[in-house]
User: What shape does this take?
Amino acid sequence: MMQFELTKDFLETLNLAVEVNNESKVLELIDGLQSADIAEIIDEQTLEEAIAFYQFFSQEQAADILIELDEGARERILNSLSSEEIAKQFIDNMDSDDAADVLAEMSDEKKNEVISHLEDFEQASDIVDLLSYEEDTAGGLMAKELFKVDINWDIKTCINELRIQSQDIEQVYTVYVVDDKNILQGIVSLKRLLLTPDNKKIKDIYNDNIISVKANVKDEEVGNIMDKYDLVVVPVVDEIGRLLGRITIDDVVEVIKEEAEKDYQMASGISENVESSDSVWLLTRARLPWLFIGLFGGILGARVIGNYEHELQLHPEMAIFIPLIAAMAGNVGVQSSAIVVQGLANNSLGLDGLWSKLLKELGVALINGVVLSSLIFGYCFFFEASTALSLTVSIALLSVIIFAALFGTIVPLLLNKYKVDPALATGPFITTVNDIFGLFLYFLIGHLMYL
Amino acid sequence: MMQFELTKDFLETLNLAVEVNNESKVLELIDGLQSADIAEIIDEQTLEEAIAFYQFFSQEQAADILIELDEGARERILNSLSSEEIAKQFIDNMDSDDAADVLAEMSDEKKNEVISHLEDFEQASDIVDLLSYEEDTAGGLMAKELFKVDINWDIKTCINELRIQSQDIEQVYTVYVVDDKNILQGIVSLKRLLLTPDNKKIKDIYNDNIISVKANVKDEEVGNIMDKYDLVVVPVVDEIGRLLGRITIDDVVEVIKEEAEKDYQMASGISENVESSDSVWLLTRARLPWLFIGLFGGILGARVIGNYEHELQLHPEMAIFIPLIAAMAGNVGVQSSAIVVQGLANNSLGLDGLWSKLLKELGVALINGVVLSSLIFGYCFFFEASTALSLTVSIALLSVIIFAALFGTIVPLLLNKYKVDPALATGPFITTVNDIFGLFLYFLIGHLMYL
Assistant: This one.
């Protein structure tokens, strides 16, 4: 099976088949599709279409699909069902982490109602446990389903025990080894279990050099750890090392991606995690605050220029390079800060101190500055034929590039030191400050040149 | 074991212990550290320190560490060794995909020399196969090591066969099922094998509804597929469906991360994949081209303003809002394009057509534009006391916001349609065009207002 691609034609054909309840046609159309593909279809359907379409799936399939839906589509479908239906058709058939995620999206009242209708007591208690963790921590990411064996068992006991445990667990990632107090001791791979004689003990074959995370660790940190150590699954323990659950990589890929995308959004002046499919209102709310910063910066810039209105009257040609100076200051600052922000996000800044980083930025800025200033000097000199203007523009450009590069480097580092998200500094804030300071430098130098 | 954090103190203590060859101290310091931690240490050492430190590891550990090193550190260490040492100490002990990645970094001559020294013929032929694929495709990402069984075997034969195959393979992700022509038929999980009676056949228990990728599929596409379907491992097949290898999620996390980061870098005006630890020269090369675009844009902006120099002489107060108009045009354009670029990268744009997207952007732009224009009108009216200027600035701001939002939306969509990376459009390009057009609008409106 290669990847499925949803088209308008496919959607129309399917909706028609669903509407006339042509089961064989519907099953033919969705043959071989995965839950994620079906979810993509449902995301594009109206509520009526989606509910009619949902009839064609078994309870387990329906639960798998529900998890893959966009939050909006999931909410619409769940709102059309009673708490009892939600509990029995969906939540009882889900892994504990997915179930907790779905419940976390509901109101407290609805959540409690749904939990009270769960038939599987173990599932209900797992979910209640999971709901007690903050969403953006290891505890909020983990699932309770896992295979575990006692360090003192022999292989035969283990395999029998795993046969029992496997009724509740779909996918085996690894088998955890605990002592009689449930304290995590290590792991043993299924392969190892499969290939070791029955009478050996777990104690003899388990691997005790493993990485675990505590339940209160932030999700980004979990992402960094799994990425760094190439882990597919990581066990979660409490403060005294008792095994609580496990986190699999697919949940963490989302976190890693969102983290990288969040930095980009912030640098572009977009707060909150919005997508192009969100409402006009949400999109506006995510963007307007940053534009206020820009507007405020523009007004401050206007005041700077206003101070030199007298110079401008005498030398109106100075106005024509205002946008160039402002734009270059912004561009250089964003470049510098983007590199620092990504370095911080990746832990790839190394052990270099602040001063050696600034020294390097100074080097880059000097090369860029000299090249670009020479070009603009040449242009001004030949096309504007004014030595004063040429000198003003080129000296101002060089100064502005150096200032913007250093400022763009130092601000995210400082924010990070004081535990503020360094990505906040990039984009509108750095651009605006650099704009204003660049204009100030430009007119100051112009003032000196034209004396 | 919790995560390791490298400090200057630790590094000094370790280097001292390595220098005086104090084995027990070195082993005590690195006790419980993973390969990725050791690699982090070596990345910060000089070549001499690294080579002395490397003596403390077994061949297998040494190979594991080599893979985790930064490209620069790896290159330095490999350059200090002969081809034979590289082959026998490192390449023979690596998984085929890692081995191919390391070899791909060498010159053709060195690569062939190393391959000629490999003792394991199977390893050598796997590596040669892998080197024939482009680095950024599924073939370039995959490893050849995998467990496979014939669809006609019974469980007992399978388990025996897996015992043999497992000598070469460290980690079992899944067991692939092929027919007698090596054409991929499906998968069977180790858990299933473990729990099924010996006399049953693979045919009866395997799962044929699986996702595979062709060897020539781009790495980003592999990342999207594994992310969408929550896969930990995906099989790679050739054009007629024969099983070639498998790709694991840890290799793809890198691709997913780099993809998200690349968009951010491009939007910030940084080409190539640079890090803050790269050389001044590399950093400059990645940044200067985008600054040229900015400079060129600034010159065009200067020409636009130059055309209205006469107006400026009569109304020098118009100059003071030049940076505001230019900055807002840039900010709005970047916001719009960032949302489209991320939507394209995530396949989350849905089935909406171009027109409905533009309509939505128009809605957002109208709200933002009306709010911000009213504010600036108020400011101008009270502080600059000129109706003509107040009207010019506020009308120009509204027009510029609408234009920039639509332009920022349409450009990445168009680029994507013509198979150009849409992230190229964001940052300097969109900012620059919006700057120039914004200035043009501002002076045009000013010209009409002051008539």
